[in-house]
Amino acid sequence: MTTAARQAFQLNWILYQHDFKIYTAEREAIDKLRNWVLKTTSEHLIRTACDPKDTIRDWYTKLKEQVGVSATKLKRDARALYKAANKPLTKAPKDTLTWLNKWEEAVTLAKEKKVPEAQHSDIWFEDFSLAIRGFMKEWIVSYEMLHATEIEDGTLTFRKLASDLRKELLKESTQMPKAGRVVAKGAFGPSFADSDDTDQLQSKNGDTETEREKTKGKGKRKLTTGESSAKCAACGLLGHTLPNCLYVFPEKARGKFHAREDRQEEVNKKLEEDDQLRKEVDRLRGKKQKEGETNSSRRKDQG
């Protein structure tokens, strides 16, 4: 063999070895993939779609045709999950943190599948806001005011919103007293009222805590958990109910009551917009008026 022939043979041998290595690696990868398919596929699908004589590409084509899910179907499923996660709630779920985790997962999937409602913060924030207003109205309204710019320009992420709400829920869970325990006067003061609102903490007969302390011979009574956790439908403060709200019935105040202007405006606005609340206030005022007329008639009869 001539020198040129030997050099040509040597070159061809090197190319052959290189190609053989590529072929061997590819063959091993295909065998590994075939074994994986056989291990993870049901016997029914193996019999109907994985003929041993076919190539792995044929297996894939038949399996996709038989049990494959289209991108459109995945998008529809993600949208349905998103809508379910944002369903408006009338009260807090049994496990709020678990509910919040599922909401995060639903929004993440909706974003990945390009669901329109999950692509911009001003849309998904509104959906989330409507979902939790039944039990976190004050918090979500305040949050929207503080982050209005981020919501509008799309820089607010659902992860940050979920993180902030999770912190709030954990904070509330550590502050709430155990059921059945007696709560001393003033225990809830810092969490629901400013100094100007302290006269709002009333008992069932309308007396304030401060005035009860001043009343001689009646002693001091501690508030139970139920009374302290009562929430007014008008002003949103804890510790009293609508019939004893001084923002709605200022004439019930038996001492100095300094109403906060911003809260008074909020109460007035709520009375204008909420028909049910306004009807209840009118009913209470009518009842009070009738009681006043009855007492007046009794005094005249006694006179």
What does this structure look like?
It is a single chain. The protein is built from 13 helices and two strands; from the N terminus they run ααααααααβααβααα. The termini are far apart. The chain has a two-stranded antiparallel ribbon. Helix 4 packs antiparallel against helix 5 and helix 5 (96-112) packs antiparallel against helix 8. By secondary structure, the protein is mainly α.
Radius of gyration, taken over Cα atoms and rounded to an integer in Å: 35 Å
Low-confidence stretches: 178-196, 201-223
Taking all residues together, what is the mean pLDDT?
Answer: 80
Number of strands: 2
Distance between the first and last residues' Cα: 145 Å
Task: Tell the overall outline.
Answer: elongated
Indicate the multimeric state: single chain
Reading the helices and strands in chain order gives: HHHHHHHHEHHEHHH
Measured as a percent range, the helix fraction is 55-70%
Instruction: Report strand %.
Output: under 5%
Largest sheet geometry = 2 strands, antiparallel
Question: SSE layout and pairings?
Answer:
Blueprint: H1 3-40, H2 43-49, H3 56-67, H4 71-85, H5 96-112, H6 121-146, H7 148-153, H8 158-175, E1 182-183, H9 189-192, H10 209-214, E2 223-224, H11 225-229, H12 261-273, H13 275-302
Antiparallel strand pairs: 1-2
